[in-house]
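Reply to dn_fold:

You asked what the input looked like. This is it:
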Amino acid sequence: MSRRHAYRSPITSWSLYGALATVAGLLAGYVGLGWDPLVSYLCSVNLVTLVFFGLDKWLAQQESFRIPEVVLFGLVAMGGSPLGFIARHLFRHKTRKTSFRVTFWLIVVLQIAVIVAYRIWIR
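and this is what came back:
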């Protein structure tokens, strides 16, 4: 009788790690440093994005399991686009893959549109 191991999605694991690291950074900035919650959040999500892009590049070089692109896109969409952009060029990672570039820039354009709409209609 063989034992079957429960399948665990790597997306769920990496998403959980990213969320926990972002929350830890948010709390450290807000509680420890007394920063504004938005500033703490943006700093932490950008640092997590930078680390995840670097880690994914390293995993690619090791020919190991990778961080799914949907997780990287999720971090970029959550506000990590500035350091996501820098990380792509710093690590020379995901710079030639056309589908990744298009999706990345689509997320950035949508973020800018939301910010502009907020500034026009809300304030």
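Helices lie at 10-32, 37-61, 69-90, 98-122.
Hope that clears it up.
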